[in-house]
Design a protein that fits this description.
Layout: E1 9-10, E2 15-19, E3 25-29, H1 31-37, E4 40-44, E5 51-52, E6 57-63, E7 67-71, E8 76-81, H2 84-87, H3 91-94, E9 103-107, H4 119-129
Antiparallel strand pairs: 1-2, 2-3, 3-9, 4-6, 5-8, 6-7, 8-9
Length: about 130
């Protein structure tokens, strides 16, 4: 089982969300997702200053195996994207919970994070899919 950091929240579609001290939320794909997809070759990042709702598509990641849509775990305004992924999408493979983050949101309602899965719940989901 891949490590799933306990300070993060998780979705059934394999995104993670991290609440920052400034109230923003960083979003990326899980280690499990990147391992299933394989070597990342391209990422279609969302536009900044776009409002998204929970479950909205907010980008696409492409690997040597497949393309997969990214979905917003919570509602908010996209305030930053990880431009480094344009030059090196493999950051999602090598550091999915760090340098491989995808976007930053200003959440509409921080309490939406409580509706996401804990690391233990996410690990149970992954085990049930295997």
């Amino acid at each position: 089982m891949e490590k799933t950091p306990s300070e993060l929240k998780y979705t059934q579609s394999h995104e993670w969300a991290k609440l920052e001290d400034d109230g923003t939320v960083i979003i990326g794909i899980t280690d499990h997702a990147q391992s299933l997809l394989g070597d990342m070759v391209y990422v279609e990042l969302p536009e900044i200053d776009v409002a998204v709702k929970t479950g909205d598509e907010c980008g696409v990641v492409e690997s040597v195996k497949a393309a997969s849509d990214l979905f917003s775990p919570i509602s908010g305004d996209i305030i930053e994207i990880n431009e480094a992924l344009n030059d090196d999408p493999s950051l999602m493979n090598t550091d999915p919970y760090g340098d491989g983050w995808i976007l930053r949101l200003q959440p509409n309602d921080e309490s939406e994070l409580n509706e996401l899965m804990s690391s233990d719940e996410y690990e149970e989901l992954v085990e049930s899919e295997e």
